[in-house]
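Risk register update: the risk of archive-format incompatibility is retired. Evidence:
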Amino acid sequence: MTPTPKTVLYVRCSTSEQTSAHQITQARDAGFVFDDSHVITDHGVSGVSTKLKDRDQGKRLFDLLQPGDTLLVRWVNRIGRDYMDVKTNIESFLRRGVTVKTVINNMVFHPDHVLKDPMQIAARDAVLAFMVGIAAAEATAAREARRAGIDHVMDSANKADKYRGKKPGFDRKTLEAVLTSLAADAPNISIIARDNDLTRQTVMRIRKNPLNADTSLRKWGL
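Archived output:
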């Protein structure tokens, strides 16, 4: 007996904070019908670094889908690492007789035996190549934006560190202890340095300009 065609939703959550619930709800709100048992979720998987066939549930997806089934994804970039991986995977599913649909924009890519007309197949392939290319370009832009953001933060931190100067080798409690000792009659610099685990030069700088020492601690939030 021929098995009843099924719709399988594939969900990729790239971070531990993401869940499949949002993508499942979005798909059902868009009118797609599928059983909970046919929701395949990959957790904590980077779409940039991991091919679909190398993901735990990606392998299961290839085993589960049969001719006549429908693969549903939020967008084409869910099922591949890069342009070639996405394109190769979708073409593999189409050759298997699986229809691929997207929740966003409700794109539909039918297998050859459904379309039959060579012109329709050519049009499908052209649209597929275009959409996969757009997804790849968006992924590249997102990576570059993240990299730019990280570089900006690091650059700002470096500039802030330069503005603050060298981090003090003592905390506020130590500074107060040193100042108390220096206030005594005939203070011994070497003993003060030893007792506070500081160098004699540091203690002498504090004695020479305690205000600078205090300002330095404030710049570093100490």
